[in-house]
Write a structure and sequence with these properties.
It comes from Vibrio harveyi (Beneckea harveyi). This is Bacterial regulatory helix-turn-helix s, AraC family protein. By secondary structure, this protein is mainly alpha-helical. It folds into 2 domains: about 1-65, 434 Repressor (Amino-terminal Domain); about 70-110, no CATH class. The protein is about 60% helix and about 5% strand. The protein contains 5 helices and 2 strands. It has a two-stranded antiparallel sheet. Helix 1 packs parallel to helix 3. The longest helix has 21 residues, at about 70-90. The protein is globular, with a radius of gyration of 16 Å. It starts with 7 loop residues before the first strand and ends with a helix. The model has no long low-confidence stretch (mean pLDDT about 80).
Length: about 110
């Protein structure tokens, strides 16, 4: 039987990229429509905690298509530096040795 699971991501991840795209050209609603996202996803009252992973990929692809390579690289670096790395580092609980921390990181990446 084929795997029919749909990979999901937190809608917060999509919001981050959508916000970055909005900084580029301000046309956030067309992006959300293209990615088949609920129009209220940017609202604080949005009831969508998770969205399909394909939506995040679509938003990321659109961001890459609309930004210059330099701007895309800067936006991606900023997102990783300011959000993903600190969030990821806060999940690491093994601090007694580098080996234990690296093993935990490898598990978190799975």
């Amino acid at each position: 039987m084929p795997n029919t699971d749909i990979p999901l991501v937190h809608s917060e991840e999509v919001k981050l990229f959508a916000t970055m795209l909005n900084e580029l050209d301000g046309d956030i609603h067309s992006l959300l429509e293209t990615a088949r996202m609920p129009q209220d996803i940017l609202s604080s009252q949005s009831s969508n905690a998770f969205v399909p992973e394909s939506a995040l990929k679509s938003v990321f692809q659109t961001l890459g298509e609309r930004a210059s390579p330099e701007k895309f690289a800067l936006l991606t670096w900023t997102l990783c530096h300011d959000i993903y790395v600190p969030r990821f580092a806060n999940q690491i609980t093994q601090t007694h040795s580098l080996k234990a921390a690296l093993e935990e990181v490898s598990q978190l990446l799975k």
